[in-house]
Automatic annotation (TrEMBL):
The lineage of its organism: Bacteria, Pseudomonadati, Pseudomonadota, Gammaproteobacteria, Enterobacterales. Transmembrane segments: none annotated. Pathway: Cofactor biosynthesis; molybdopterin biosynthesis. Its EC number is 4.1.99.22. It catalyses: GTP + AH2 + S-adenosyl-L-methionine = (8S)-3',8-cyclo-7,8-dihydroguanosine 5'-triphosphate + 5'-deoxyadenosine + L-methionine + A + H(+). GO terms for molecular function: 4 iron, 4 sulfur cluster binding; cyclic pyranopterin monophosphate synthase activity; GTP 3',8'-cyclase activity; GTP binding; metal ion binding; S-adenosyl-L-methionine binding. It comes from Rouxiella badensis. Belongs to the radical SAM superfamily. MoaA family. InterPro entries: Aldolase_TIM, Elp3/MiaA/NifB-like_rSAM, MoaA, MoaA-like, MoaA_NifB_PqqE_Fe-S-bd_CS, MoaA_twitch, MoCo_biosynth_MoaA/MoaC, rSAM. This is GTP 3',8-cyclase.
Amino acid sequence: MQQLTDAFARKFYYLRLSITDVCNFRCTYCLPDGYKPNGHNNKSFLSLDEIRRVSRAFANLGTEKVRLTGGEPSLRRDFTDIIAAVRENPQIRHLAVTTNGYRLARDITQWRDAGLTALNVSVDSLDARQFHAITGQDKFREVMSGIDAAFDAGFEKVKVNAVLMRDVNHNSLQTFLNWIKDRPIQLRFIELMETGDGGSLFRKHHVSGQVIRDQLVQQGWTLMGRSRSDGPAQVFTHPDYIGEIGLIMPYEKDFCATCNRLRVSAVGNLHLCLFGEQGIPLRDLLADDQQQEALMARIQGGLGRKKQTHFLHQGNTGMTQNLSFIGG
Ligand SMILES: Nc1nc2c(ncn2[C@@H]2O[C@H](COP(=O)(O)OP(=O)(O)OP(=O)(O)O)[C@@H](O)[C@H]2O)c(=O)[nH]1
Ligand SMILES: C[S@@+](CC[C@H](N)C(=O)[O-])C[C@H]1O[C@@H](n2cnc3c(N)ncnc32)[C@H](O)[C@@H]1O
Ligand code: SF4
Ligand code: SF4
């Protein structure tokens, strides 16, 4: 087996697999007008067998972690079967999902039993009204009980994502800190990223994670190390807190130097970067088991075209209109 490696000697251990574009939330920074079908109907998202084949190919190329994302991945009726199918590969030791949390309370035990090992939930505000205003859904309490249900189901840690927005939640650090003081939650502030649809929101609300980092350091938080299949967050800990704080700062210098992940969209295109071009079609090689070698060769070959960084500083968001179609 040859580990996936690009022209800049970065190695790829982590696949982010989108399984649907559909979402039931309308987050202001992602799908402010809600999900609109984009030329393909729901049936055209990767089938369970196609997901099985693509995850097998990546597993054989050294992938040790897969994240299921979307749209809202838990909207797939076969979501539990998808978890089990990806876990058929023993090389994939970590299987995570990123979710808006609306199905957690009902289904998390089932997902864990099927082989889910890690959970990231998006919660931009701890104020129910503000949560509603940001997501378009009055479901703060349901999502909170979903997180409790995850601990009850045996998850030792839950990661929570909050998109950092000026004049929305950028002054809420203390509220989040109080929340994680006695809870094993890694609360991550994600810098708002510009997308094709989100230019004006970005200009209005983008704020650097530096404002949070300065406060953390001042209060005695310290930076932890990262392992090879971790996401890009800088993670901080503090002796008085059970929880942790993560900062995802894609505009910071050298953010892309440690890129360790590739993406496959819900229609089966390989994306070399979150802000890249159209993607390399894999789907014609996912129809049966006979084409695994060709599939692996195409993934490996495509990787040669991966660029060193994103081009967000130049205002170039690639073809990424919003993050729902590729899963962030
Ligand atoms: N620019 C950029 N942003 C990323 C990248 N990976 C993750 N992000 C951002 O971080 C958000 C949160 O990612 P998650 O899905 O929670 O997972 P993660 O933090 O990457 O990974 P884990 O460490 O596995 O939990 C994504 O939705 C993106 O907004 C990346 O490679 N590039
Ligand atoms: C696209 S969503 C998909 C999974 C699921 N629907 C959810 O919201 O967790 C993945 C992550 O992307 C983040 N995200 C979406 N648009 C973003 C943007 N413009 N800038 C930064 N993060 C964004 C969301 O907050 C969420 O944590
Ligand atoms: S961030 Fe997630 S929950 Fe919010 S609209 Fe986008 S895909 Fe849906
Ligand atoms: S922006 Fe692109 S190159 Fe940079 S870390 Fe993210 S996926 Fe990798």
